[in-house]
User: Fold this.
Amino acid sequence: MKRIIFVLICAFLLSAVLVPYSLEVKLVSAQGSTYTVENIDHQVEVMYSGNVVIRDTITISGQIFGGFLIGFPYKYSSYLLKGIAFSSQDILPLDLDVQLGERSGFYGAEVTFSAESPKTFTVVFILSNALLTSFSDGFYLDFPAYPSLARDVTRCNVTIVLPGEASVVDVTKHDGTVSSGKFVKNNLAAFSYYPANATIDASEGWIKQINIATLNRAITLGIAGEITVSDKYRIINNSTKQAASLKLDVPIEASNILAKDELGTPFSSATLPADGSANAVSVNITLSNPLQNGQSVIVRLEYNLPSASTEQTRFGLDLEPFPYFSYYIRVASITVIPPEGARIVLPQFPSVTSSLAIDREIFQETLRIDREGLSYVDRDAHSLETMQIVYEYNSLWVSLRPAFWVWGLAAIGSVVIVFMRRPKLKPSKTPRISVPKLTGGKLGSEQVKAFVDAYEEKARLSSEVEALAHRAQKGKMPRRQYKVQRRALELRIGSLSKIIAELEPTFRSAGGNYAGLTRQLDDAETEANSVEANLRIVEARHKTGELALEDYKKSISELKQRKEKVESKVNGILLRLREEIR
Assistant:
């Protein structure tokens, strides 16, 4: 009897614990089922680059609590490049590669809402152009005829959108064949699995199966606010057909458009009629040599844009961080380069995101935006937002470069005069730089002058070593003579390095501007050594065949630009040190 009473008490307590939980589960389930999917506009768009954009605009009634699941047959998952969800007000969080309900065979994505769900929102998937198969007059397109949802859909409107004059011949799918790029599916069941194939007529080259690997857009601002843009594309032909021409987009306000190859040789090009809704114009470029399957080409587009607005010493322009492109770009960067001496006021550091960076050097500031997977889809999703860039620039900076040239010529002239006045019978000697006596941390003008002279003499001798090596490689001087002269120069460089090393502690202990400039020189020296090491590595890899000629030229060009920036930085620091002792 006692055992029976004990069992009943345990059963009662267990029920008391589990019943509220079961009621809560039922309540949550009931809340999640308070909406119906009334309509989906299922657009399948083919970009100029052949990439497939699946754009589902969903209209619901009721409220979604939690997440909304949408997907497609799993066979298309390996072609997925990017996914994005948005409403008319916000970008919505989208989790990719999730389970679509309890069913297998599907690739799922989940849209989540932080608060009340909108009545209409859009989910976009961008897929590879490998879904296209070319034939003589066009392409066959493999695509999901309808979206796959965990709920029934009252009505699904399907539209295949193609660029230019390309057209749909027919669409073959499990529920019947149609001869149009538009069709409707009423009462679309949950977990629909409908792969389809469309025949596309694109004989005039409206679609090109190309992979645009990189785009580097450099926006250079002149001293009067004028804007010059250079777009550098790296394009690979993925099609079995050769590509004799390419179509690339520039802003609608672009003028003086010129297309060039990597070496600066102009391409034949023509500007196509503008598309006002896209805020862009297309430039049709005829390549010097047709691009075969798997081959790549570098294309540069140079053009001008309307000048920046001006207010005294302040300049401003509106930049589109998501410009219109009718193709898919895997990696893109947009760099804004104000004149030397300009200071970027907007955007400020607190507003800088992870994809945006402001690089500050002594005389130059640049702003860079990095993007992955850029196309007109991003422009649509971000509601045409623009970024305001404001910078301050004083016209006195125009005289900086001429001043450097004048000082340089004056220095060269002084050296020439001294050399001509030397007695010709006496052997020439390399001028020695005396090291002033250190004064326990105090810094005098003689020490600053000795430090600057040693640094400049060391840079000059290093240039002579490089020139000697170049002459020896070209066979313009005997190898023995090269070794003797190189050894003499290296000994002198070592002596100058010792002088610099002896003076550096005094500069650091002096504090203030001297210590800061010394640290900047050390940083520049480290950067210069890194560049030299990278140059040697690139040369070695090219000689052994590890580095292709195209990549070798690109690497050498980038490293030389870095070296020029370092030299300019060092010259500026030395100039400031000389001004300290005047």
